[in-house]
Design a protein that fits this description.
The protein is α/β, with parallel strands linked by helices. The chain has helices spanning 23-32, 95-102, 110-120, 137-147; strands spanning 5-8, 13-19, 37-38, 44-46, 53-55, 61-63, 66-68, 81-89, 128-135.
């Protein structure tokens, strides 16, 4: 399995998937447990983009507290950056299934979709969904210039 991986779900959103069986995912969960903030979306929490981020067109790795994953340039979602949804599951879910489930859906619908996946994969209340930021090189430069953030 090539995990974690990303699927594009709209022009401005992406879904990143990670399975608990992956050591990098377990390290991520251990490192960031308790760092999440409530969001307006049921069963979806925020992780601050300055702490965790997805970088467009970078190497996929978990390193120095940042979860970075690749979105190829031709599939980049936005000129600067935006929201990505990080889905952590105890079971593997195929990219095609995630794309079919989440593509074109509003975040308000994610709780219902996640509950459906949990029922299918027999893992009630164990799929976690986080909102993180993604940045293109241009977006990263903007963050540095505007806020002095070193990402």
């Amino acid at each position: 399995m090539n995990e974690p991986y990303i699927v594009k779900i709209s022009d401005s959103d992406a879904m990143m998937f990670g399975c608990e069986a992956d050591e990098r995912v377990r390290e991520f969960v251990a490192k960031f447990d308790g760092w999440e903030y409530e969001s307006e979306f049921e069963r979806t929490s925020y992780l601050l983009g300055t702490d965790v981020f997805i970088e467009v067109a970078s190497e996929e790795r978990l390193n120095e507290g940042a979860l970075r994953a690749q979105i190829s340039n031709e599939k980049a979602l936005d000129a600067d950056g935006g929201a990505a949804y990080l889905l952590l599951s105890p079971r593997h879910i195929a990219a095609e299934e995630l794309r079919g489930a989440f593509e074109g859906r509003a975040p308000q619908e994610f709780a219902r979709i996640i509950e459906g996946l949990e029922a299918k994969y027999d893992c009630k209340d164990r799929i976690l969904c986080y909102i993180v930021c993604y940045f293109t090189p241009k977006g990263k430069e903007g963050m540095r210039a505007d806020f002095g953030v070193q990402i």
